[in-house]
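User: Fold this; tokens only.

Assistant: Input:
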Amino acid sequence: MDPDLLERLYRECDGYAQRVHEKLVEDEHIQIQYSTLTRLLRELGLRRSREPRCARAPDEPGAEMQHDPTRYSMVLGGGRTMPDVQPLPHEVLLA
């Protein structure tokens, strides 16, 4: 793949890789997978690698976890009730 062609198309398409892909296929008659194109753009320094959306924290036994305080209602015995829902012990979650 010609790096000059990719750079030119990338500028013409205002940095939109999907549009670059469309132009390569439609105008230049070059069949290329989108994932291959984005890799080539990253290798040329035209496109940054994706940053992770959030930090990852490992789940460890006994470690602090997020708690969902949502109250649920359900029909039970012909009437609506809001039962107390207790979190499962960690051992049950691992099973």
